């Protein structure tokens, strides 16, 4: 039986995102959510929303979306983590990844921040995270960071950690050619400069970082590519291709709604609505293909 975990990242980021995720859960197209807990203003809302999820959709997994890149953090500043002052001209994700790839990181601060976020999750939701992943895939940026994540997950009895080792095959011709070209000829650090602006840089660095980690998750991951190209046909292509070599997938998605009011973040935009719409269409396709939507414990929702 083919099984698909559909995980919505960034619960707690803003109202539009949260309400879109809840709608997707209600309609049965989201089986798992990852919550950011570094925004204190969202805690009451998160507590209420997750209480609703557990009452009406108890099979949906609720996990921690570890944030080490976007301030505010829980108990330190990003400058403490990367050991340098932030340049206002450099995006925090880029600064974090550049430092992590060079091992210019403060592991004591990172360890404290990870522990704090797990702690806050427990206080907000009255339970431990059911899974753990990273905002901007921050948890895989260096093997030392991943090892600390794995150690603390073990300490708290968290059994599922995302490894975004996305399969890049010859079906993605342009991506595949580019990745193969630079894989043996380019040092990873300079590519961090163009993260967020260049899809290839992001994908190569995620691919490179996953190659440094052990063990690899049993779930085949898809979502980083689709996150940049949100057509429904491309989504189906990625899922069909991944199921050729695995019977258990995790699809990372970022759905949401959009309201005609000012927003604190750029995430509240039409792309989020489009992604939610594609998930609604995907539900009927999965039924035809006899693919089950499951949570991280492979329980059908």
Largest sheet: 7 strands, parallel
Strand percentage lies at 5-15%
Counting helices, strands and paired strands, the structural category is alpha/beta
Mean pLDDT across every amino acid position: 90
CATH fold assignment: TIM Barrel
Q: Please report the distance between the alpha carbons of the first and last residues.
A: 15 Å
Number of strands: 7
What is the 3D form? Answer: globular
Low-confidence stretches: none
The CATH H-level superfamily is Glycoside hydrolase/deacetylase
CATH class: Alpha Beta
Total count of helical runs of at least 4 residues: 10
Helix-strand sequence: EHEHEHHHEHHHEHEHE
- Helix percent reads 40-55%
Number of structurally distinct domains: 1
Tell me what the CATH architecture is: Alpha-Beta Barrel
Task: Provide a descriptive summary of the structure in words.
The protein is α/β, with parallel strands linked by helices and 301 residues long. It has one domain: TIM Barrel (Alpha-Beta Barrel), CATH 3.20.20. Helices cover 42% and strands 12% of the residues. Strands 1, 2, 3, 4, 5, 6 and 7 form a 7-stranded parallel sheet that branches. Helix 9 links the parallel strand 5 and strand 6 (248-253). Helix 1 runs parallel beside helix 10. The radius of gyration is 18 Å and the shape is globular.
